[in-house]
């Protein structure tokens, strides 16, 4: 009987007892001389790859569990390490341009036994074992699945997606590898459009321009290289709706600034989107000795600035990995709420122009909600990015103007100006390059 089969059988056994937090009658475990503990321990002394390290860890855990099962008084257990949930703040690393946590990561070990002292402990043991079993199968089978796929293997047992998310991250932290080494990834949500080519490690080639509604962003680990010799610019937009409007008008093809790439993380970006943008930001070609310039278009509200900050500097949640994810060379296109608010207040227009403003631009200017004000104040007080001595004074001033004027604006305000959003983008690109 091989290790994979043993792990599968033990996972099923523990899950049957632990589902819904109710422990049923314990399965009877018989000694089996065909399962000597020593046979399951990894024998190789070579420096392991991350995947080898994961497999070695899982098989070592299995070996320990089987040894305990073969012992008359044995109690199988698994210990998982977690990072301390407490954060004391963050600072900006001047060398990498990335946010870093100022707190010392505290490792908190959690041990779960089978059968546990409580039904909940037994369920946790079964949950971890089930996830380890799938990870082992994925690495050995050389395939990658999503956290969502893993959850749907047994949604009744797991209960909710957050359970899978937490334990996958805890397992990676315990072993000391990136989550990619587990062959488990978050479900991709980011989209990209543009006439460029992605070459994958498996030899496949993706012509991104053939995807009329945008391509779901692939894993960076699967990419060998990209070919984007004709690309002059990259535009990151906050919203999926704005992304689709721009690709329907083929802005990435017909822009007066030449061909470009449009990308969206659908709000706050996931890791795959951040990794992909970071990857694109480092690519050069024979015709472009430097990477294309990257611009960001977000709502004119505190969340928009926070989303832009996530791309450029990273997030506190991923502080340990921001230096591999941040994109320091991005430029803020807008939306700058203060521009629209001040222009409306100062404009001397005809009555027909005023009607157009009232019916168009004005409808996208809204009052800040209490949550918006709270977030803006928190950013001004706690973020080193928009601190008085921080690197983004313009962002700080914009947040202050939002609070004073008590307004925010959505990107959709650009639909109602002359030339609509396409013309506005062309003017911004021209102005940016004229100033350089």
From TrEMBL:
Its cofactor is Mg(2+). Coiled coil: none annotated. Its EC number is 5.6.2.2. Residues 234-417 form the Topoisomerase 6 subunit A/Spo11 TOPRIM domain. GO terms for biological process: meiotic DNA double-strand break formation; meiotic DNA double-strand break processing; reciprocal meiotic recombination. The active site is at 152 (o-(5'-phospho-dna)-tyrosine intermediate). InterPro entries: Spo11/TopoVI_A, Spo11/TopoVI_A_N, Spo11/TopoVI_A_sf, TOPRIM_Topo6A/Spo11, WH-like_DNA-bd_sf. It holds the Pfam family TOP6A-Spo11_Toprim. GO terms for cellular component: nuclear chromosome. Keywords: DNA-binding, Isomerase, Magnesium, Metal-binding, Topoisomerase. It catalyses: ATP-dependent breakage, passage and rejoining of double-stranded DNA. This is DNA topoisomerase (ATP-hydrolyzing). It comes from Ascosphaera apis ARSEF 7405.
């Amino acid at each position: 009987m091989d290790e994979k089969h043993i792990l599968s059988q033990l996972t099923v056994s523990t899950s049957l007892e632990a589902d819904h937090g109710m422990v049923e009658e314990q399965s009877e475990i018989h000694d089996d001389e065909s399962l000597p503990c020593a046979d399951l321990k990894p024998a190789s002394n070579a420096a392991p790859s991350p995947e080898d390290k994961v497999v070695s860890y899982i098989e070592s855990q299995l070996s320990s569990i089987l040894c305990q099962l073969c012992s008359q008084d044995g109690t199988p257990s698994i210990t998982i390490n977690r990072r301390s949930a407490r954060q004391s703040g963050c600072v900006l690393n001047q060398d990498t341009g990335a946010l870093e946590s100022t707190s010392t990561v505290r490792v908190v070990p959690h041990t779960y036994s089978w059968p546990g002292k409580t039904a909940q402990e037994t369920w946790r043991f079964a949950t971890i074992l089930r996830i380890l079993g799938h990870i082992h199968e994925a690495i050995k089978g050389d395939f990658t699945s999503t956290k969502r796929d893993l959850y749907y293997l047994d949604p009744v047992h797991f209960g909710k997606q957050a359970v899978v998310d937490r334990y996958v991250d805890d397992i990676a932290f315990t072993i000391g590898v990136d989550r990619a080494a587990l062959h488990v990834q978050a479900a991709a949500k980011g989209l990209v459009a543009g006439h460029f080519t992605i070459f994958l490690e498996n030899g496949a080639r993706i012509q991104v321009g053939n995807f009329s509604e945008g391509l779901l962003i692939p894993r960076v680990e699967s990419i060998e290289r990209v070919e984007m010799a004709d690309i002059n610019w990259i535009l990151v937009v906050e919203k999926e709706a704005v992304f689709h409007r721009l690709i329907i008008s083929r802005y990435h093809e017909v822009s007066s600034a030449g061909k470009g790439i449009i990308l969206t993380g659908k709000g706050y970006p996931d890791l795959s989107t951040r990794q992909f943008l970071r990857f694109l930001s480092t690519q050069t070609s024979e015709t472009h000795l430097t990477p294309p310039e990257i611009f960001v278009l977000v709502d004119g509200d505190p969340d928009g600035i926070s989303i832009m900050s996530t791309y450029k500097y990273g997030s506190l949640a991923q502080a340990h990995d921001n230096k591999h994810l941040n994109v320091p060379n991005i430029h803020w296109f807008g939306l700058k709420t203060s521009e629209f608010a001040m222009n409306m207040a100062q404009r001397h227009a005809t009555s027909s122009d005023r009607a157009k403003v009232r019916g168009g631009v004005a409808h996208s200017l809204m009052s800040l909600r209490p949550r918006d004000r709270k977030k803006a104040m928190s950013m001004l007080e706690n973020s080193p990015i928009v601190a008085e001595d921080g690197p983004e004074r313009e962002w700080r001033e914009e947040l202050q103007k939002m609070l004073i004027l008590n307004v925010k604006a959505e990107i959709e305000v650009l639909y109602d100006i002359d030339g609509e959003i396409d013309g506005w983008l062309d003017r911004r690109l021209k102005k940016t390059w004229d100033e350089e």
